[in-house]
Amino acid sequence: MPSTPHPEPDLVLRRFTRTDTEFFSRLATDERVTRFVGDGRTWDSGLIAARVDSALGDVPPQHPEAKRWFIASLGDEPAGLVVSSRHEGAVEIGYWLAPEHWGKGLAGRMVALAIPAVWDAYGPIQLSARVDPGNRASVRILARHGFHADGATPEGLDVYRLEHH
């Protein structure tokens, strides 16, 4: 008798907590994940600790340095991270997905969940994302969720924006 496939658990987004540091550290030290993050290099333990402390700081969402991180989980298993930070009249978002979950459509689902979560956290504000032009998958995901190209950074990253509606 053929076995019935087990349905994959729903993807949920929840606030990042200190207990998520180990998962984040695994992402931040994996060169496949960091290839399109920042300068493209993996992070050392000092940078990881500083970023976690900053993300967990109790800075009000209206503050210019406010940050909110979210874990995307499948059941009890963390699958990805959504980061958000206030910058010059917008909130920048980014997303990191564990390599074992690549190619399953989870990054797009993470962005779909992140948009309302970020607006809930910060209020009605423009969202932005910086993307390496070579990261075509991220460009497609952002476009599918209503982001529009809006120039480039001096570092050569394309900027995408989404207005609150």
From TrEMBL:
Domain spans labelled N-acetyltransferase: 11-165
Keyword Nucleotidyltransferase: no
Keywords, ordered alphabetically: Acyltransferase, Transferase
Record-annotated membrane-spanning stretches: none
Gene3D superfamilies noted in UniProt: 3.40.630.30
Family per similarity comment: Belongs to the acetyltransferase family. RimJ subfamily.
Stated name of the protein: RimJ/RimL family protein N-acetyltransferase
